[in-house]
Amino acid sequence: MLSVHSINVAYGDAQALWDVTFHVGENEICSIIGANGAGKTTTLSTILGMIRPLSGEIHFLGSRIDGKHPHTIVDLGISLVPEGRRLFSKLTVLENLELGAFTKKARPQIEKTLAWVMEIFPILKERKNQLAGSLSGGMQQMLAIGRGLMAKPKLLMLDEPSLGLAPLVVKMLFEVIQKLNDHHVTLLLVEQNIHQALKISHLAFVMKTGKIVLAGKGSDLMVDKEIKKAYMGILE
Ligand code: ATP
Questions:
Q1: What is the DSSP string of 134-198?
Q2: Pocket-forming residues, ligand 1, beta carbon under 6 Å
Q3: Is 158:103 a contact under the CB 8 Å cutoff?
Q4: pLDDT tens digits for 80-125?
Q5: How far apart are the C-alpha atoms of 5 and 27, rounded to whole Å?
Q6: Which pLDDT does position 174 carry in this prediction?
Q7: Which of 72, 113, 150, 165 suits 78 as a labelling partner, its CA being 20 to 30 A distant?
């Protein structure tokens, strides 16, 4: 579904990604893991067209998308739920959701998509008139994911969805991610909660200083001695 081939990205003189290559298959959950500053967010931003790679190619559902505008890429079926959620705190839950259906393709289907999102997140229906800023952190993350789904993506990218959430809420969040996958949404997840991410991922890619240093099945990486030594202790 998504094929990232040998992309190189720099911020001015500082190269942030080096020959990054990976693939995400339809209906998979894939994770990119790694420490702070490894290049995970840069990878997602490049896929969405917010950053233009110096070289390399990105293909999505058979179309080449690197160099295209973000709104074109969203219209093709990729959505990003950014780190920090970026909700409109003074708007209601419903208004935030409606803003997610801004693309040409999504707008005509807004009522139908809204019903689908509220079926996945019944709590958002209950709280639809509440201001986003008054929700708990976990609920805000659900809303941010719901808003991402309003663009009807085929591929949903989540940047650090569990950041700052209590362990029980994180558990719920990963159940929701699994549920989305059951609804045929393909997921590309950036996470520092490596244990949870690997547990639900078909494939995972480990990034270090702008490079993919390891790739494999989530279940294999979970028991990988090097991964355990390098990341689990620090990041859990
Ligand atoms: P984090 O979890 O901290 O967000 P990350 O793995 O997502 O880490 P990136 O945010 O992609 O990493 O950063 C990769 C590298 O690019 C880092 O060295 C970072 O300092 C640098 N970088 C990121 N954004 C910018 C920017 N806007 N301008 C300059 N350098 C940047």
A1: GS-HHHHHHHHHHHHHTT--SEEEEESTTTT--HHHHHHHHHHHHHHHHTT-EEEEEES-HHHHH
A2: 11, 14, 16, 34, 36-42
A3: no
A4: 999 877 899 999 999 999 999 888 888 889 999 999 999 989 999 9
A5: 20
A6: 93
A7: 165
Query: Of 186, 115, 28, 130, whose CA–CA distance to 139 is shortest?
Result: 130
State residue 22 phi and psi, 5-degree precision: -165, 165
**Would you give the DSSP letter of residue 62?**
T
Q: Could you count the other beta carbons within 10 Å of the beta carbon of residue 220?
A: 14
Per-residue burial over 67-94, b = 16 or more CB atoms within 10 Å of its CB, e = otherwise: ebeeeebbbbbbbbbbbebebeeeebbb
Pocket test for ligand 1, best of 13, 40, 159 (most atoms within 8 A of CB): 40
- Cα(156) to ligand 1 centroid in Å equals 21
As a whole number of angstroms, the distance between CA 58 and CA 45 comes to 12
Query: Tokens at residue 33, please?
Result: 């893991």
Place of tokens 């995970």: 40
42 CA distance to ligand 1 middle (Å): 6
Name the strand (E) or helix (H) holding 107. none
CA pair distance 175, 199, nearest whole angstrom = 11
